[in-house]
Amino acid sequence: MSEHKTYPPAADFVKNAHVDAAKYEEMYAASINDPDTFWKEHGQRVDWIKPFTKIKDIDFTLGNVSIKWFEDGQLNVAANCVDRHLDKRGDQTAIIWEADDPEEPSKHITYRELSEQVNKLSNVYKELGVGRGDRVVLYMPMIPEAAYAMLACARIGAIHSIVFAGFSPEALAARVSGCEAKLIVTADQAPRGGRNTALKSNVDKALEISGDTKVLMVERTGADVDMKDGRDFAYGPLMEKASAECEPEAMNAEDPLFILYTSGSTGAPKGVVHTTGGYLVWAAMTHEITFDYHDGDVYWCTADVGWVTGHSYIVYGPLANGATTLMFEGVPTYPDASRFWQVCEKHKVAQFYTAPTAIRALMGQGNEYVEKCDLSSLKLLGTVGEPINPEAWEWYHNEVGKGKIPIVDTWWQTETGGHLMTPLPGAHALKPGAAMKPFFGVKPAVLDPQSGEEITENPTEGVLVITDSWPGQMRTVWGDHERFEKTYFSDYKGYYFSGDGCRRDADGDYWITGRVDDVINVSGHRMGTAEVESALVAHPKVSEAAVVGYPHNIKGQGIYCYVTLMSGEEPSEELRKELRDWVRKEIGPIASPDLIQWAPGLPKTRSGKIMRRILRKIAENDYGALGDTSTLADPGVVDELIDNRMNRE
Ligand code: WT7
């Protein structure tokens, strides 16, 4: 373990950094000892239409959970991300857009142009009958219109819910009806990696399942699509006619800004709700400080706006700070494995933020792809989404960063709105694989998973909880506050439970060890094993299914399925393929099973509960350490599963 190897910040980086070691200590102490004063000051990072006088009102007690920040203030997120920059930086580039195809010209959209587009689209929304509090689903390629569509919602007080364009019509339909959307914004097609996904026809299929929502369609490729009269509207003509003036709505700090569906350990995905004031303060502050963003820097986060990373660190955080943010439509390996580095060179990227799964995939392609590009503009690298193995960290540091620039390993979740733990690049000596230190105002604690007692000594290991609120925290599950309380506040009373395990080393630094629940992380995409199981059992030939994660070289975790067939059904390679295609259709390609093992029986307790701990061990090829199997109803099934296991690495 390279736990003892540390990388202190370089002196010239520290000199210019927003936060150095002494300042971190001072600000962290202030944020914990006197949060009201601290957040009164940092609440001013955004412009308020009506200033707040209340700072925080928090209750983490089960049955009573309530989270409010800056609650009597009013503001508008689009005004903060666009209007307020016009005087000083109207001609500065807000968004650089890089197409999937490197031959297609990139676009530079200034803050003034952004303002015009957002205002126009706001008026188009209104014309289509969308207003304050209404829900709008976005199902979009990575094009500037996706950012316009988000900001226009914010401007008129509508609540967006983005559905990643890789999700199937079925998954889209569930999310559209889940939030009772009034409008879907989409495109004809989404180019990605040289292939076009038919977004509009997916929307058509989704609406066959779930009703007659209006559709606004951006013409991205000009492909032939069906347009249903009175339901479907083309973006171009409506924008052309629309006025470029739309007053921003004065929103209350606690009005919802967006809903984002994410997977949990049980049941269907839940709609995570983020609100206006606290979220924006958190996104802006973490963007500036974690990435040490300075005026004039070109900043690039490679995520998709379909995930929370795209919300907070492509759109809201950077634009609130008046930054230049790069939006990339494509994938890291198209046309070849040098694409990321070519884009860095082309646009002189200063901060580059990506996922460990991408780093591992590119590392496997060889160094020449990196070495042929000029990466001298880079000042900082970041990672997010899953623990990064030290080998990938070292490669990122040495090959991409030339051993000279810091890496911020940012731990956070859809639920947290923004970074909760990360090294600050001018303050902390880095340790490969460690999320290091809490951000300002974040009070982490490590609990003994059995007793729920807080462990204060170091080193230690346990479950990671947060003891008090931070402004970017999710407020509720859309339409189901009880589920919110049950998911995050019931296992360990009085705390926010992250679902992650962690270590705290002898220096008091944090290392995230991964999920302790039935959530898996496949290529940085979060998935509930329960979702894949319910897709499998919906197939007529499947009687029962259990799904677990297993270690995968590139993806981090792969999807391992144990499937019991209906009696009379014969296992076959064709059936394997059929089930794989079925899950892709039900959820989307990201949920495609990696391994399917035919299981005549599943290990169950006498009360019928599937013992996943055992299935996880077999999938990890670690069946020597199965632990106590004495409570199994039929211990014989375990030997059968071990004999026929799919992963022998
Ligand atoms: C889960 C949240 C946060 C945006 C992307 C994922 C894992 C996230 C790290 C990290 C170790 C990480 C956790 C977390 N995770 N970042 N730096 N080190 N693990 O958001 O889809 O809500 O997933 O991703 O397990 O709980 P998400």
From TrEMBL:
ATP binds at G385, E386, P387, D409, T410, W411, W412, Q413, T414, D500, R515, R526. Residues 83-468 form the AMP-dependent synthetase/ligase domain. Its cofactor is Mg(2+). The keyword Transmembrane does not apply. GO terms for molecular function: acetate-CoA ligase activity; AMP binding; ATP binding; metal ion binding. Residues 531-609 form the AMP-binding enzyme C-terminal domain. The modification N6-acetyllysine is found at K609. Keywords: Acetylation, ATP-binding, Ligase, Magnesium, Metal-binding, Nucleotide-binding. It catalyses: acetate + ATP + CoA = acetyl-CoA + AMP + diphosphate. InterPro entries: Ac_CoA_lig, ACAS_N, AMP-bd_C, AMP-bd_C_sf, AMP-binding_CS, AMP-dep_synth/lig_dom, ANL_N_sf. It is an enzyme of class 6 (ligase). CoA binds at R192, G193, G194, R195, T309, S523, R584. Acetylated. Deacetylation by the SIR2-homolog deacetylase activates the enzyme. Its EC number is 6.2.1.1. GO terms for biological process: acetyl-CoA biosynthetic process from acetate. Residues 24-81 form the Acetyl-coenzyme A synthetase N-terminal domain. Mg(2+) binds at V537, H539, V542. Pfam families: ACAS_N, AMP-binding, AMP-binding_C. Catalyzes the conversion of acetate into acetyl-CoA (AcCoA), an essential intermediate at the junction of anabolic and catabolic pathways. AcsA undergoes a two-step reaction. In the first half reaction, AcsA combines acetate with ATP to form acetyl-adenylate (AcAMP) intermediate. In the second half reaction, it can then transfer the acetyl group from AcAMP to the sulfhydryl group of CoA, forming the product AcCoA. Belongs to the ATP-dependent AMP-binding enzyme family. This is Acetyl-coenzyme A synthetase. It comes from Roseovarius indicus.
